[in-house]
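Example record

One chain of 418 residues, shown exactly as stored in the release files.
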Amino acid sequence: MKTGRGGPLAGIRILDLTTVIMGPFATQILAALGADVIKIESPEGDNMRHVGPMNHAGMGHIFVHANQGKRSVVLDLKQPAAHEAMMRLIDGCDVLISNIRPKALARLGLDYESVRAHNPRLIHVSCCGFGQDGPYAARSAYDDLIQGATGLPWLMSQYGADTPCYAPVTLADRVTGLHAVYAVTAALYERERSGIGQSIVVPMFEAMAQFVLGDHLGGLSFDPSNGDPGYARLLTAHRRPYETKDGHLCVLIYNDKHWKAFFAAIGQSERFERDTRFSNHTNRAQHIDEIYAQVAQLMRTRTTGEWRQLLDAADIPNMPMNTPLDLLDDPHLNAVGFIKRVEHPTEGCLRTPGNPTAWSRSACPDASPSPRLGEHSIEVLEELGYSAAQIAELQASGVTGEPTSTRTLAFAESQEQK
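Predicted structure tokens for this chain:
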């Protein structure tokens, strides 16, 4: 096993059969916590390798961010010889995590029932679109589809969008990926007590339904219902960055203390007492459209800088409306060292988000750069006991492969520069 990494998951080996975003996001977090993550890829590689921008083919920006700290092994799982290598890997792994559809995983002989005989301590995690006991079990699932199925486009239209639309982030993928992370870590803890592994299903639809309904079940929470779905404060069309004299500012005047301080700061202290719409949380919730609309009018009377100075002095929560470019130069993120600059062996200097958690004792290791396709195929096969001749045979038959060597790549680039 690969050694030398610290972190709370040091010594844990994870066999990663995930692609695109949901699964790789989860296993990247597990790798950042110190696990040895072996990413199994087809000869074509993870689809996200091929989505730009990129400096070199096969190293797209989303892939680079979601696969730090992992080792890439090419195995054509449709070939029997690859199945043998997989069984050797499974024998020495703590976790197998995949987002291959369960029926397809079973055809490959990698479902839980097939593999637990090899390793009873194995934790088998299946990230899929839907729970496997319902009528949607075999349906394909992507972030857009799950956002739609759990009501996000409808909520956007209720919020004031001209037409139903998706959130412009892979929200369902990443929310579900976080569910997979806690499932793995909790299962590892349970295994310490029981000594045996288990099978876990992490479905996108149910994960996002929990996420959405927690806010928006509203009056449907009660049986019989006592109101409509939705959380009014989140759905008012006025809940957006406020326009100022010279830009925009994100402000949340939330509790009684904030509202009292806000009116005092703008010289209207008596308004908090006189206008009962502002006087307590229940009243504000009932009149949220009017309240936010009035704040929007007031915010246009000062510049962003003037408002920030006034609101900070009154201890009223506010933040700038940043762009991704602004985040790279954010003073707080820079002070905590969140944006990392790392040298990739082939891709040059990369900016990448760091690990957001801080540990007092089990410090998380610096992640190794995202691997080129098959970069660790030979290394891992040697760890499994394959001889040089056996590895050469696997390469010749297309079962495994490795990237163009760094030396060859550097030579080719030097020729291009001549």
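Notes: The chain has 20 helices and eleven strands.
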